[in-house]
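thought: fold this chain, then report.
action: predict
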Amino acid sequence: MPQHSDIDIARVHDKAPDRGRARRLVDRIWPRGVSKATLRHDDWIRDIAPTTALRAWFGHDPQKWGASCNRSPHELANNADAVGRGLAWCRARSVSLLCAAKNREHNQAVVLRDDLQQRLKENTS
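observation:
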């Protein structure tokens, strides 16, 4: 079994290409305007997303991005079950982390991808 897989990020509102990747929703709340019946996803772990308090504080403000990146890993460190499930996804196959954020560079999926990749790298060293 490979020790890590390719992890990319996709928006829930974009058309889902059929590339054989596992599609994992990583938002805490269900994306607005998307029905559960139509979203192609394999799993949804709400607890792997930032807490409601951190999401509200960040508010999609790019000026708060750096501080948000510093806070998110602390939340992940306190959520071993969700992180363990995320790592299991990544060890099994290539993964697309799904989120509803419009900003593709400043969102929780970016932080989560980087965290998972770092943890996978540390486990293979």
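thought: worth noting. The chain has one domain: 7-124.
final: tokens above.
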